[in-house]
Amino acid sequence: MNELIQKAVSLLESNAVQVVIGYGKGSTDRTRAIFLTKSEDCEQLIFDSRCVQNLAVYLTKAEIKKMGKPAIVAPIPVLRSILQLAAENQITADSLVVLGISPESELIGFDSPDAIETYLSTKQIAIDEKYRKAIDDIKAMPVVERFEYWVKELESCFKCYACRAACPLCYCTRCTVENNQPQWISVGSHPLGNLEWHVMRAMHLAGRCTDCEACFKACPMGIPIHLLTKSMLQDVSENFGSYGPSLHKDNTLSSFKPDDKESFIR
Ligand code: SF4
Ligand code: SF4
Predict the structure, then answer these.
(1) Which of 62, 151, 223, 248 is 20 to 30 A from 115, alpha carbon to alpha carbon?
(2) Distance from C-alpha of 208 to C-alpha of 169, rounded to nearest angstrom
(3) What is the Å distance from ligand 1's center to 214 Cα?
(4) pLDDT reading at 158 higher than 90
(5) Torsion angle (degrees, nearest 10) of CA 108, 113, 115, 121
(6) How, if at all, do strands 70-74 and 97-101 pair?
């Protein structure tokens, strides 16, 4: 941790960056995102197992961009999201400094998104067995039962959009759910509107989701939306090849192959 603080101090003092995005003490025993602009404040940086928020979400925010070039504290899920944002041309190598944190809590420097991809190649996304079992059980349900299962699970969603706000890959400045001309998605939180919203969210994240679980952790109702995105990861893997962010692979939903098994695309 001292190494992280020292690095943050040196980056701010040399003006190599103007803001450090990291984790600090939150209310009660929780941590929160902090935005440091003065080297004397860097002592506030912490990193431990409570630091699960995906800080990459701030990289595309206009308010943060206005602060200048950022350095960002990046454990593995954040690194994956940074790589996906680079693959989608939302960030460039020289637009930020990445303060990578290994699973052993060691500080790692990266000089390019390519270097992040090389590092992550040994740390593929792996869906936990308990989630795999839950997804398999849902997929094994007859269609009507599966539909009812999701209608029931999504019943308590009141469309606060905390899941969207927590996701680094939901970066549109205006989301389809807020468009009312035309209104594609019903704004009310009722069974149909909730279903539409969550199907749309899952589909927009297909092949892009980095499995950080920030959306699930942000949901005040504890709705298992992570099962939808993890299931989508599995589907993408089975139908379109390996998943995980990459600068060198085509994005699943914005590319096609002439030999695609679906004839409608040809
Ligand atoms: S959909 Fe959820 S798990 Fe996937 S990248 Fe966004 S916040 Fe992370
Ligand atoms: S955070 Fe939960 S309640 Fe809020 S919109 Fe997302 S799923 Fe619905």
Answers:
(1) 62
(2) 7
(3) 6
(4) yes
(5) 100
(6) parallel
Record the pTM: 0.93
Nearest ligand to the C-alpha atom of residue 232: 1
* d(C-alpha 89, C-alpha 137), whole Å: 37
For residue 74, give the nearest of 97, 40, 94, 50 by alpha carbon. Answer: 97
How far, in Å, CA of 190 to CA of 82, rounded? 35
Rounded-to-integer distance, Cα 199 and Cα 153, Å: 13
Question: Which among 172, 170, 213, 206 is positioned nearest to 78, based on CA atoms?
Answer: 213
The residue type found at 166 is A
User: Contact at 8 Å (CB) between 217 and 83?
Assistant: no
Q: Is 20 in the pocket of ligand 2 (CB under 6 A)?
A: no
Count of C-beta atoms within a 10 Å radius of residue 142: 8
Check if 160 has its Cβ closer than 6 Å to any atom of ligand 2: yes
pLDDT at 242 (0 to 100): 67
* pLDDT at 82 exceeding the cut of 70: yes
Asked if residue 194 lies in contact with residue 154, where contact means CB atoms within 8 angstroms, the answer is yes
Residue 153 has pLDDT above 80, yes or no: yes
37 C-alpha to center of ligand 1: Å? Answer: 28
Report the pLDDT averaged over residues 20-49.
96
- Ligand 2 contact, 202 CB (< 6 A): no
Structure tokens of 94? 């020289």
C-alpha distances out from residue 158 to 73, 170, 216, 223, Å = 32, 18, 14, 11
Segment 165-191 shows an average pLDDT of 88
Question: What is the edge-to-edge ordering of all strands in the sheet holding 97-101?
Answer: 31-36, 19-25, 70-74, 97-101, 107-110
What's the rounded mean pLDDT across residues 198-206?
A: 93
Q: Which amino acid, residue 93?
A: A
**The predicted structure's pLDDT at residue 50:** 94
Does residue 235 have a pLDDT over 80?
Answer: yes
